[in-house]
């Protein structure tokens, strides 16, 4: 957990079944996501690279900086720019998300 001036981030192992489907194509499926909760943001699921079909993704030139997590790299699909991101070198407080992929649109399933 990290907290700064009212801003808080937690990262915990999740038990959710998370699927990412775009235009009928399964991009990722995981039963071992990391759940990141951050003040003012929706819950995000960071998926291990083994659970993501990375061969379908194309690296983007987009980079962003978060003062709490670090620098993010992005990947795209045709017609879906910057659909997914990851932190190759996250800040130590959120080190668990290193190289895990996060998608804007995810579906959680009740098993």
Which key features would you list for this structure?
111 residues, mainly beta, Metal Binding Protein, Guanine Nucleotide Exchange Factor, Chain A, 0% helix, DUF427 domain-containing protein
Write the layout of secondary structure elements.
Blueprint: E1 2-4, E2 7-13, E3 17-22, E4 25-30, E5 34-38, E6 44-47, E7 58-66, E8 70-77, E9 80-86, E10 101-103, E11 107-109
Antiparallel strand pairs: 1-2, 2-5, 3-4, 3-11, 5-6, 6-10, 7-8, 8-9, 9-10
Protein name: DUF427 domain-containing protein
Organism: Streptomyces poriferorum
InterPro entries: DUF427 (IPR007361)
Computed structural class? mainly beta
CATH superfamily: Domain of unknown function (DUF427)
The strands making up the biggest β-sheet line up spatially as 1-2-5-6-10-9-8-7
CATH architecture: Beta Complex
Q: N-to-C terminal Cα separation, in Å?
A: 28 Å
Domain tally: 1
- Give the number of helices: 0
* H-E order: EEEEEEEEEEE
Count of β-strands: 11
CATH class: Mainly Beta
How is the main sheet built?
8 strands, antiparallel
Shape: globular
The chain-level mean pLDDT equals: 91
Helix content: under 10%
Polypeptide structure, described:
- It holds the Pfam family NTP_transf_9.
- It comes from Streptomyces poriferorum.
- There is one protein chain.
- The protein has 111 residues and is mostly beta strands.
- The protein has one domain: Metal Binding Protein, Guanine Nucleotide Exchange Factor, Chain A (Beta Complex).
- It has no helices and eleven strands.
- The protein has strands at residues 2-4, 7-13, 17-22, 25-30, 34-38, 44-47, 58-66, 70-77, 80-86, 101-103, 107-109.
- The strands form two sheets. An eight-stranded antiparallel sheet has the order 1-2-5-6-10-9-8-7, with no helix packed on it. Strands 4-3-11 form a three-stranded antiparallel sheet, with no helix packed on it.
- Strand 3 (17-22) and strand 4 (25-30) form a beta hairpin.
- The protein starts with a strand and ends with a strand.
- 26% of the residues are buried.
């Amino acid at each position: 957990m990290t907290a700064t001036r009212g801003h808080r981030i937690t990262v915990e192992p999740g038990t959710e079944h998370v699927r990412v489907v775009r235009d009928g194509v399964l991009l990722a499926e995981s039963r071992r996501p990391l759940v990141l909760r951050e003040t003012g943001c929706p819950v995000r699921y960071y998926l291990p690279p083994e659970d993501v079909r990375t061969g379908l993704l194309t690296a983007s030139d987009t980079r962003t900086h978060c003062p709490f997590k670090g620098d993010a790299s992005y990947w795209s699909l045709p017609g879906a720019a910057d659909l997914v991101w990851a932190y190759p070198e996250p800040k130590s407080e959120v080190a668990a998300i290193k190289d895990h992929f996060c998608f804007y649109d995810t579906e959680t399933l009740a098993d």
